Amino acid sequence: MDERSTSPAPVESDRPDWRTELSIANLGVHRHVCGFFSSRDDEYRMLLPFIHDGITAGEKAVHIIDPERRDDHVQRLGSAGIDAGAAEENGQLDLREWADAHLRGGSFDQDRTLALIDDIRKQSRQQGFKRIRFVTHMEWALLSRPGVDGLLEYEASANLTKLEDPVICVYDLARFRGDVVIDVLRTHPLVIIGGIIQENPFFVPPEEFLRELRDRRRSESRVPPHGR
After folding, report:
1. How many Cβ atoms from other residues are within 10 Å of residue 5's Cβ?
2. DSSP annotation string for 56-96
3. pLDDT by residue (tens digit) across 132-149?
4. Which helix (H) or strand (E) holds 37?
5. Element (H or E) spanning 41, and its range?
6. Which domains are assigned to the chain?
């Protein structure tokens, strides 16, 4: 099996449930979205208008990013007319690196991260923001840190409660294995593939997916070590 993934290709381009613009209206009832991108240009071509619309509307923006991409991220925001420094200063933009979110303390803990996100939501409401637009670079799960193997459980668990704020989970297709991409796909009701946002026909309800994960792990634990 190829260790790297390829983007699942759309079959028809004229289906009514397909959209090429990421907007609150096009999200419908869903708020948990996975975005699969083959390049940074493709990623920002889709995300920047969405981010800009939120900033213009006076909404909160929370971006959890790869620390090595911070400068590039800020520059790309600037290219869309967003002054990241000013937005951070007035509290409208919360720009966090992985160490300040998913990898606090050097490891990933699902409950701790979900509690942090909930705290961010509460604080933002107290600041007077009616909506938060979350954008998260998900490559933290590829680092050699304790707990990162809990990615799929974390993504599925995010669907157990109704989300009021849009959360865009950004995945670099060049870095994640194909089998991981398929499982991630199954944990999001809405997906961005090939610059198109659409209802995800492969979405699995969280209770069912989490049960499948538990069964899978039990089966794997019964497999004897190689060579015995």
Report:
1. 22
2. HTT-EEEEEE-GGGHHHHHHHHHHTT--HHHHHHTTSEEEE
3. 999 999 999 999 999 999
4. strand 32-37
5. helix 40-56
6. 18-222 (3.40.50.300)
Q: What is the pLDDT of residue 28?
A: 86
Which is nearest to 188 in space by CA: 170, 213, 212?
170
CA distance 153 to 216: 12
Q: Are 49 and 18 in contact (CB under 8 A)?
A: no
Pairing of strands 132-137, 93-97: unpaired
Residue listed under structure tokens 């398929």: 182
Element (H, E) at 182: helix 178-185
User: 55 near 92, Cβ under 8 Å?
Assistant: yes
How far apart CA 89 and CA 84 sit, in angstroms, is 8
Whether the CB-CB separation of 33 and 43 falls below 8 Å is answered with no
Residue with tokens 């946002």: 197
pTM of this prediction? 0.88
